[in-house]
Amino acid sequence: MKARTIFYCTQCGNEFPKWQGRCPACGSWNTIVEQPAASRAKSPASAGKTADRRPAGRVLTLSEVDMEEEIRFPTGMGELDRVLGGGAVRGSLVLVGGSPGIGKSTLMLQICDNLSRSFRVLYVSGEESVRQIKLRSQRLGVAGEGLYLLAETKLDHILDSVETCSPDILIVDSIQTMYQSQSDSLPGSVAQVKACAMSLMELAKGKGVTVFVIGHINKEGSIAGPKVLEHMVDCVLSFEGEQNLAYRILRATKNRFGATDEIGVFEMMDIGLREVPNPSEMLLSGRPTGTPGTCVTCVMEGVRPVLAEVQALVAPSSFSVPRRTSNGIDYNRAMLLLAVLEKRGGLRISGCDAYINVIGGLNLNEPAADLAAVLALASSFRDRPVPDDLAAVGEVGLTGEIRSVHTLGQRLSEIRRLGFSKCLVPARGVKDLSIPDLQLIPVRNIREALAALL
Predict the structure, then answer these.
(1) Is 238 exposed, middle or buried (0-12, 13-18, 19+ CB in 10 A)?
(2) I want to staple 421 with a disulfide (CB 3.0 to 4.6 A). Which of 32, 79, 345, 389 is the partner?
(3) Which of 106, 95, 88 is nearest to 274 (CA)?
(4) Residue 93 burial (CB < 10 Å; 0-12/13-18/19+)?
(5) Phi/psi of residue 139, each to 5°?
(6) How many Cα atoms within 13 Å fall on the side-chain side of residue 354?
(7) What contacts 278, CB < 8 A, 6 or more positions away?
(8) In this predicted structure, what is the pLDDT of residue 192?
(9) Strand pairing partners for 396?
(10) What average pLDDT does the segment 108-134 reach?
(11) What is the pLDDT of residue 243?
(12) Cα distance between residue 215 and residue 223, in whole Å
């Protein structure tokens, strides 16, 4: 008798009786896969071992909840604690995603060096043997007192080890290698990833174990597996960076216990990841002097101001349709700035190729970097450099006006600390600001900015 199969979307998890090219629920293309129906019926919560392990919860009023015991604890890495919102939370499930070789396992093993001194830590690897982990720990200088290792891919055996070892912190590397015997699917499939994540979530909430789960990303840059995996966990950390660059950026795309606009900066070295407490100096290192097409701005990453260098290249196009490329700035936002610069700034760049890049792999998502991008484009178009001691902060509107941005005083203090003596700022909202040794140049629109600069 032929086994019954079912189709469901790997992005949203909705089930369908037959295959379709596009998911009607979330609109994603080529995300519907076929799995045996038995694996879905036996999935996560109904037949797993953890369903019998978790005790029934007791109903409490809000006033009965005890908050005397601190539920946060430091991981030993300040940059990671910053992204997590001040430290890890007991009983939380944290998903750390990133491309292969970016440093996810290195980061998790390094925090074990500090955590194992105060807590019992169980490091489970489905990709390496315990000897390989030992070799890597020696290279990273991880002592490992209180650190327990387990090379296993079957989740049932891992849960048995948790019962025996009773760890305070569990690290699983990685979720794509784990599988449950109750499911007939292969490890890494959508059904297995959902089932294993559900069991780990029940472990974290039921026993108060802090669980860190490592996940790989697919070719589109999102975490491999169903989108519901990110909905299940408490925190989703994204480890970003280029393989040929030494710097890595850690950011939270979801955090139930803190903000999602903080970033942590690390440098990959031979002995592991080194924290970069001052990312502005890192992003401005090697900045060219007296070169057209570059301008410095200040953006807020959470509560920390970060200086970033925006570079632009404008050159006559040899094609009927000029090329437009942006890296680090949203493409649609870059096209908007090009149109405003031509219409309101009077620069005829419609027949030129335009390229915009943010140095260091930083993504500038806030509009405070608009003015710096416009100045870099105009500087490259006119082949006249922006003064090396000048920075620019401001949002550009469709009419060419320069709008004020929040926390301007904190941004200007960081600009002055890094050695800049002049800054173009919006004319509105700077009357009460006074930064010693920093000349503020207020401008109302991009024509005034171009006149003051060029």
Answers:
(1) buried
(2) 389
(3) 106
(4) buried
(5) -65, -35
(6) 26
(7) none
(8) 86
(9) 402
(10) 92
(11) 66
(12) 6
Beta-strand pair 210-216/93-98: parallel
Q: Does the pLDDT value for residue 240 go beyond 60? A: yes
For residues 371 and 423, the answer to whether their CB atoms sit within 8 Å is no
Report the C-alpha gap between 347 and 166 in whole angstroms.
67
Average pLDDT over residues 155-182: 92
C-beta neighbour count of 82 within 10 angstroms: 24
Q: Is 126 helix (H, G, I), strand (E, B) or coil?
A: coil
Amino acid at 366: E
Q: What is the 3-state secondary structure (H, E, C) of 171-229?
A: EEECHHHCECCCCCCCCCCHHHHHHHHHHHHHHHHHHCCEEEEEEEECCCCCECCCCHH
Work out the angle at residue 429's Cα, subtended by the Cα atoms of residues 424 and 433, and round it to the nearest 5 degrees: 75
Spatial distance between the Cα atoms of 344 and 451, rounded to a whole number of angstroms: 13
Residues in the chain: 454
Place of tokens 């090219």: 21
Backbone phi and psi for residue 354, each to the nearest 5 degrees, phi listed first: -130, 130
Whole-number percent of the chain with pLDDT over 70: 91
Does the pTM surpass 0.85? The reply is: no
Contact 109, 121 (CB under 8 A): no
pLDDT at 273: 92
Terminal Cα-to-Cα distance of the chain (whole angstroms): 79
Mark 157-180 as b/e (b = at least 16 C-beta within 10 Å). Answer: ebbebbeeeebbbbbbbbbbbbbb
DSSP states of 339-396:
HHHHHTT----TTEEEEEEETTS--B-SGGGHHHHHHHHHHHHHT-PPPTTEEE--EE
Query: What's the mean pLDDT in 192-205?
Result: 90
Summary mean pLDDT of the chain: 87
pLDDT surpassing 70 at residue 143: yes
Encoded amino acid at 69, one letter: E
pLDDT for the residue numbered 41: 40
Q: Does 220 score more than 70 pLDDT?
A: no
Cα–Cα dist 372/356, whole Å: 11
User: Of 36 and 422, which is predicted with more confidence?
Assistant: 422
What average pLDDT does this structure show over 44-70? Answer: 60
CA distance 243 to 217: 15
